[in-house]
């Protein structure tokens, strides 16, 4: 069935919001040794229909330890321009306990950021989504019992799952998972096989294996992605059906990237955190957190402002040459080791 397309059957009703037994069984049957084969970085370019370079798409996967338990870390990031405006998307997944996804497009100099945090606690999955448009912040929350999320595939785990399916060269039938849409509602997600075809990559023509992912939205539209993979699991091309943008691999991975190692060495890239939307977002979050914490502490201890104000007034009145010595003598009476009869 060279080049043939198999489209998964649409769910019959919105009530069918549970993953199939085949999908749950498939996830539980994944061996750690197979996941090791999925640990490698890859870098592709995004091009328009007229072959214009629009940006880059990079994925990094590595093993780590979190709370003394082995886990996988995934970081995918696209960066480019749409209609002349810079835009980007970041997906970060950490093991099974705390997956997180976020996207940060920039349109007309107004920052639009969407961030979702998912945390498992007391048998439930707690989800918080924050959308920032300029100065306006909108917050949404949802909570689901873990039993309702059997077969959940997040954005990060979806990338890993397709790598694994490509390495196995087979997409089993009735693979119906669930995911969360933009409104944090459960929606069916299916994967189907597109077969094999020939694709030109660099100076070579290679056989690639195709996988289609479809998110069956209850609102009518069903976003669909078609991805083709090399024999070793590297992504060769990726496109959303109906979009004029295609993500392509321009040259074959190096030998060091093709080797399946438990530990993968990534090429060192100069860090310019101000230009990394995810890191800049983390910086702003931490800055706001510290500011709120400091403000709260000063509010609880008004004597701090009075003490500093008195010291500055006394300092400016005396204008000593040795400020450090003056400060030492000024604050000595406040020391717990200073005798109370000396001032």
UniProtKB/TrEMBL annotation:
Residues 22-244 form the Ciliogenesis-associated TTC17-interacting protein N-terminal domain. CDD domains: DD_CATIP (cd22973). The keyword Cytoplasm applies. GO terms for biological process: actin filament polymerization; cilium organization. SUPFAM superfamilies: Dimerization-anchoring domain of cAMP-dependent PK regulatory subunit (SSF47391). One of its GO terms (cellular component) is nucleus. Residues 89-104 have a biased composition (Polar residues). Pfam families: CATIP_N. Its main location: membrane. Residues 81-105 are annotated as: Disordered. Keywords: Cell membrane, Cilium biogenesis/degradation, Cytoplasm, Cytoskeleton, Membrane, Nucleus. It is found in: Cell membrane; Cytoplasm, Cytoskeleton; Nucleus. Belongs to the CATIP family. Plays a role in primary ciliogenesis by modulating actin polymerization. This is Ciliogenesis-associated TTC17-interacting protein. It comes from Menidia menidia.
């Amino acid at each position: 069935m060279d080049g043939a397309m198999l489209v998964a059957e649409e769910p019959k009703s919105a009530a069918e919001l549970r993953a199939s037994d085949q999908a749950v069984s498939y996830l539980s049957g994944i061996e750690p040794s197979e996941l090791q084969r999925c640990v490698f970085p890859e870098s592709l370019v995004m091009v328009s229909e007229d072959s214009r370079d629009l940006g880059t798409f990079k994925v990094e996967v590595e093993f780590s330890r979190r709370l003394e338990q082995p886990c996988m870390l995934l970081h995918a990031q696209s960066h480019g321009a749409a209609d002349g405006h810079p835009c980007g998307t970041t997906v970060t997944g950490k093991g099974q306990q705390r997956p997180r996804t976020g996207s940060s497009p920039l349109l007309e100099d107004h920052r639009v950021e969407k961030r979702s945090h998912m945390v498992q606690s007391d048998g439930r999955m707690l989800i918080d989504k924050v959308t920032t448009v300029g100065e306006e912040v909108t917050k949404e929350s949802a909570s689901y019992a873990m039993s309702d999320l059997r077969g959940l595939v997040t954005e990060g785990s979806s990338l890993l799952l397709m790598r694994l399916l490509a390495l196995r060269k087979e997409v089993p039938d009735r693979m119906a998972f669930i995911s969360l849409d933009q409104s944090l509602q459960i929606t069916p997600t299916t994967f189907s096989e597109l077969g094999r075809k020939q694709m030109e990559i660099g100076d070579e023509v290679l056989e690639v294996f195709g996988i289609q992912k479809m998110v069956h939205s209850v609102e009518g539209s069903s976003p669909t992605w078609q991805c083709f993979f090399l024999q070793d699991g590297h992504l060769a091309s990726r496109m959303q059906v109906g979009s004029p943008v295609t993500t392509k691999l321009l040259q074959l991975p190096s030998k060091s990237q093709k080797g399946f190692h438990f530990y993968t060495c990534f090429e060192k890239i100069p860090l310019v955190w101000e230009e990394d939307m995810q890191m800049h977002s983390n910086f702003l979050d931490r800055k706001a957190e510290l500011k709120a914490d400091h403000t709260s502490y000063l509010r609880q201890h008004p004597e701090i402002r009075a003490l500093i104000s008195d010291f500055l007034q006394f300092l400016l009145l005396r204008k000593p040459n040795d400020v450090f010595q003056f400060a030492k003598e000024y604050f000595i009476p406040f020391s717990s080791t200073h005798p109370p009869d000396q001032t």
